[in-house]
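Box S1 | Example of a co-folding query
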Amino acid sequence: MGFVKFLGTAGARYVVAKQLRYSAGTWIELSGTKLLLDPGPGTLLRCRKSRPPLDPEKLHGIILTHRHLDHSTDVNVMLEVMADLGQGGRKGVLLAPRDCLEGEDPVVLKYVRKYPERIEVLEEGREFGVGDIRITPVRHLHGDAETYGVILDSPEGRLGFVVDTKFAPELPGRYAGCDLLVLNVVRLKPTPGIDHLSLPEAGEFIKEVRPKLAVLTHFGMTMLRAKPRELALKLSEDLGIQVMAAEDGLTVEARLWRG
Ligand SMILES: [Zn+2]
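Box S1 (continued) | Returned holo structure for zinc ion
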């Protein structure tokens, strides 16, 4: 049975710096394929401390949605660990936007690029396969960082990860048909000049996509102070759609989005 485990749920620099929530990534297991999304600071540690244990040597792929620190700092060590320190040769896939790999300041070190079997550049209009999972990137609007949300299709359903982005009316339609919709909701209220979703914008998103289950994560201080669990409950009542707030270590099993 597939599942998504939130190793970390921090979403703004202050929350990350103080580790009020962990800033580790999200572990996704579907039809036996294991992926890690956005390995921020502490991802390796949170994998090792996970109960039941998560074994990063067994990962098939790592997806980097964009280059910001809270999404990418552990990518280098995780590439090495995914390949089991390179003992059996190259292993695993890295999917990342071009500016994580090229240009002035790539976040993926060149010397670790010998570990994955392949490195794929995320781009609008392309699709990628890892095991039984088909990955479709969706271009987001997130400052200068080239950023992609992802849709994962597998025999266990369609999962959408709406990562960091400014709200745009055309964006929810791209996630049509998702059974599970995970949204990075940094702010309680829409804030001009901040390229992140706020709670009402996440609500609009969920209302349009109508997933079987929506999970809010990647919280900033305004969300944490307002108690994400209560906000999610209120949103569930308002929309008539099940909405949960992620906590560090939360595991969401496939039966919750397949039922
Ligand atoms: Zn970001």
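Residues 66, 68, 142, 145, 164 surround zinc ion (CB under 6 Å). DSSP finds nine helices and 15 strands in the chain.
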